[in-house]
Amino acid sequence: MNALQAVNDSNSEVMSLETCIRQALEQGQLTPVLAARIQQIVEEGGLAEYEQQLLQLLQDAIQDHCIRPVQPLEPR
Fold it and tell me: What element of type H or E holds 48?
C-alpha cells in the first residue's frame, strides 16, 4: 500500500489542498502521506489562483524551515 492509498483508505472524504497544507503548517512537517496527496492534486491540474498561492506558501515555509519534509521509514 502506498502513502496515497493509506490517505484514501483512512479518510472517507479526500483531503483538499488547503487541508493538506494547513495540516503541514500545524504539525511543522510534511509527511509522506501529505506530500503524496499534494502531488496528486497538482498532477490533476486545473488549480485555481488561490491554490497556486497555497502551494507557494508551502514552498516558502519549507524553504524557511518552518515545515520539515519527513522521509518515510525504511523497512528493516
Answer: none
